[in-house]
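User: Run a structure prediction on this.
Assistant: Running it now.
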Amino acid sequence: GISKKKLYRKFLTLIYKSFSFCFFSFDKHRQLYEEARKFLQQEKVDAILITGEPFVLFRYGYLLKKEFGIPWIADYRDGWKLNHVARFQTGILNHLLQRWEFYFEKKFISNSSLITAPDNYLGEKLGKLHRKNFRAVFNGFDEFLPPKRMEHPDSIGNNSQKLLLAHTGTLTQGQRVEFLLSSILELHEEGKISPEDIQIQFVGLDYYEAQSARVKNFNPKIFEYIKTTPRISRERAMEINSSSDLLIAFTEENYQAIFAKVYDYLAAQKPILVLPSDDGLLSAIVSETQSGISFSEKDELKKFLADQIQLKKSEGNSMQISSDREKVLFYSRENQS
């Protein structure tokens, strides 16, 4: 049956990933290593920069350093042992797999010259874990996007009278989406809003079945307030960001990160709502760049949303921002490079 085939594929993927850290025959990326060796045999380089994930690439840095003596930099775009999603994976098998991979992480990083990370929070933790120096290199954005309305509305609404909120990309198990959903539910039950007033757009959420169900099944009373889409192109997602009124960045409890989508939000030049405030990295970047607001209390968020709905109805536009362009540009990829 389909379920058995799916289980078999997952098992094979698990086996290949686990053994890829010690055997090239299980490593689907091995051609990168082979080409790197050929290049280094002919050319002189000062250092090698290797980005994970996939973290098996760190093995290449370890091996190339041993063979050629060239310093290499381990560029983490997310944690490996310190992955914020992996901490929710429980059970003996997951525990054993995490220990297995951590053994190789320590081994590979042992001869690296420097660690880079997408923020200081993760960088400090990685530095302590591996006893290495680190540098923060933010993910950043390519260029500013001009604000606009979508010319071709689809399942994502473009009713000019509705207040449009957008969240694009991954929603993790730890991100506190319920802070927003419960606020919408309370406003609805208090008779202060209707589905004609506001719409929450979860762009690409249908690709993540468990998280899509989590949002859609929160409460049937607010089902009509929510729109979701399957995975779409990056260009389309950026267009939706630019045409929305407010952009949503959910935080995780007991974890800090500037998620990649936040840089896309900065490029869209639309107000960012940090929900709820993390009193840390995410709230800080939004405050520093004057790009939005962080909310710690639901009552504050509810009042804000109700006010924005009325503003949109009366003036055709909701809250506008005048972000600090110089501080936003600090996070551009051009500047980070």
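The two ends are 49 Å apart (CA to CA).
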